[in-house]
Structure prediction request, 546 residues.
Amino acid sequence: MKSKFKYLFFLLPLVATNSCTKLDETVYSRFVAENYYNSKNEVLSAVLRPYTHANAWTTPGQNGWWRVSELSADQLAWPVKGIDGQDGGNWIRDHYHQWTNDDDAVWNPWNLMWWGLGLCNQPIENLEKRSLAQMGITQAEKDAYVAELKLFRDFTLLKIMDLWGNVPVATTVGELNIPTKSRTEVFNFLEADIKENLEKVPVLSPTMVGRMSKAGAYAMLVELYLNAAKWTGTARWDDCIATCDKLMAGQGGGQAGAVALDPNIVDTYSPRNSTKSKEILLSITYDPPKGSSAPQWPGDFYHFNQRQINGSTRTGNNGVIVIPGVYDGFFKNTDLRKKEWFLIGPQYVYGTTTPVTGTSGREYFQQPLIFVDNVRKNKSLQPGQDPNTLPSNMTTGEENSGVRFNKYKLGLTTDAANYQAVDWSLYRLTWVYFAKAEALMRKNNGVATQDAVDLINACKKRSFAAADWATEAYTPATLTMDELLKERGREFIFEGFRRQDLIRFDKFVSTAWWDHTPSNDKNKELLPIPNRQITLNPGLKQNAGY
Prediction:
């Protein structure tokens, strides 16, 4: 079934253009349902289309939810490196929280995400326009498809609410001038809709990999309840804990047998993680060996010559780096994640001792490529000059600036049956463990209970050798709220949650990092509604401060 998912989206022509998410007079492109929906395969193709689109905004590679969620936070950045990375200043404005109402850094995520929501609403409506016999499906299958689409629409709207807060709730195609709802109203709609449809979808299983199941639905509720105090003003810690317990007890199912923490820090991110990882609850799925699309995230992370480093075919735009100081400031040398999830220092052609060299036209052309934990023009260093006196900011990078991503692995081209077949996790069980631990601590006035300590230790233990673990295990005294946030940063680096975490911990606009000076402006916890959208839909209301 998983391979069928990865083929079927080709069957249905794209029915949405950029206009289909503008919430205006040309909100959604209509099409005649009877031209499609003539078989179960065509129905399933329409049901699965929103997932293929979600690749564009949930994962690195395009300017969607992931980029603004990570590039505005304290761990990752996309600085200018010599002649590369200016990109209209989008990533600079993300980093300094200097968004404008007409900024592409704001408009592009808005466009991609509302487009995705429209791709859920279209088949929900069209499934009502054809008889079961015409579509070749049963009533039970139809009900499950509609519930699945509604839940993935909820996932999309949840992430829209995460970025913009006060937004419309669009549940039909072609509705004009949809008014802005308060964040609390959107939250309440999502909670009710998820609960209504949760029991109508299957549990997670090998046939539901990459699709919305009970596991994904429960995980959405966890995200709502974890952020409820910030998003609505009313804490929901008990609900968060209870929903985490359901997932931990296996009530949402599992993609590779019974759900469980993965035993190491590799299986979750390696080829065929859909069959190796027991902890992934919802993912964007890829299987190029079987004809589906390849991951897009190398474009954001990989160097121009990355194929030589990895023994692969993929390169990138030499873009996203780890902010200076995070690599050593967050990770101890004994932390296995520090070695496994990053690239630093001299780079070599895979399997050899031959240095990879820099790229033509850049600072290190025909010289060894050495990734460094700083962003400064080291080529300009004068004899005897202290390198720390060089300016370091979002415009002073060179080709080799920054520690690089190595968390997910594409595999080797020599392993053709598995190469690039690595799914991107949207929710995983470790995140649920952390959510429950945080809820327990917040219920206890920010003090760790033993249950919270045990939850975090169960996850963290995988990152240390047995000989080092005795001195690394948390106790109720050492697991403070600040340390919990830092451990979240270690465990979930690159995964898209950092902006949300900083906001929930009241650090996003009040904390300095690298060259980022805090604004202390709470309005920056939300993005502005794009002006071009407000012009088209007078029902939209701009967020405060913009």
